[in-house]
C-alpha cells in the first residue's frame, strides 16, 4: 500500500506541474494582452502579496473587525470647505449646445465593453450588457437622453461601492488608502459620453493647457517626462537648474465640488448639462466594502469618483490658471530674478487666480514657491 501511495503522490505532483505549466503558457500568455488583471493577480499570489486592508491603529487601539474598518474608511474622506466660494462669472468661451445621444453611439460603446471588468451595486456584469447589446441599446439611449435633458442622474446610479486600495506609508493608517468607486456599468457608459462631449468643447476652444498630460487623449505622462528631461538637458548646458516637484495629497478626494461647478460654469457649461454635472458630483452616496463587510451609506461631500471608466470632470481637476506660467530663467541669480519679476508674476498669474479655485492647496503651494524664491535670491 505504501508503494501505491508513493506512486499516486508522484503522479499527482507530475500532473500539477504539467497543469501549472499549461496554464502559464496557454492562459497567462494571452491574459497579458486581453486581461492583465488576471496575470498580475497570479504574480501577486506567487509573491504572497496581501492586497487587502491591514488592521488599523485608531487612538492607540488596534481595529481588526472588518465592519469597523469599513466604517473607519468611510469616514476618512475629506469634506469640502464651503467658505469663500468664488463669485459666478462667465468666460468669453461660447456655451455648449444641447447634448444629443445617438443610438448608434451607445451601441458602439456597449459592444466594446470589457466583459472581464467588475460590476457595480446592481450586480449586472458587463458581459450581460455586451451579449444583449442590440436589445438593451434602445432602452439605454432613452434613459441617457432623458437623464441629460432633465439634468439629473438616476438615484440608483448615484450609489457606489467603494473598495480601499493601499497607496504607501503605514498600512495601519486609514488615510493611506485610496478609494476606488465601483459604479453601475450603465452609468459609466453615460459618463463616457459626457466626458467625450466635455473634452470636445475644451479642445475646440483651447481651454486646457498643453502642459497638461493627464486625463487627455493622445497624451501620457511618459511624454511629459521626456519633454521635462529635454528641457533640463537643454538648460543645463548653459546654467544651473532649480526645480520644485509638488505632489498634492489625495488629489481626487480633495476636489472641491462647488468650486469645480463654478469653473465649469465659467467655461461655458450651463443649462441642463451643468445641472446634470451638479447632480453627478454633489448627490453621490457611497458605501465602503472591506473584507466582505459593507459600511453604512453616506454622502460624498468632496472629491470626484475615481472609477475604472471616464470621469466627466477629470480634465478640469488641474487649474488652467497655471497655463503659460512656467517661466524659464537662464541663470537663477538675483539679477535675473529681479529682471523677470518672478515674485510679482507668480502673484498675478498663478497665486490670485488659483486661490479662487482651491484655497487650501493654494496656500501650501504659495508658501513652497515663495520660500524657493528666497533661496534663489
Automatic annotation (TrEMBL):
Pfam families per UniProt = RVT_1
Pull one GO CC term from this UniProt entry: extracellular matrix
Q: Tell me the leader sequence span.
A: none
InterPro entries recorded: RT_dom
Reverse transcriptase domain spans which residues?
170-306
Report what the protein is called: LINE-1 retrotransposable element ORF2 protein
**Which species is this UniProt entry from?**
Stylophora pistillata
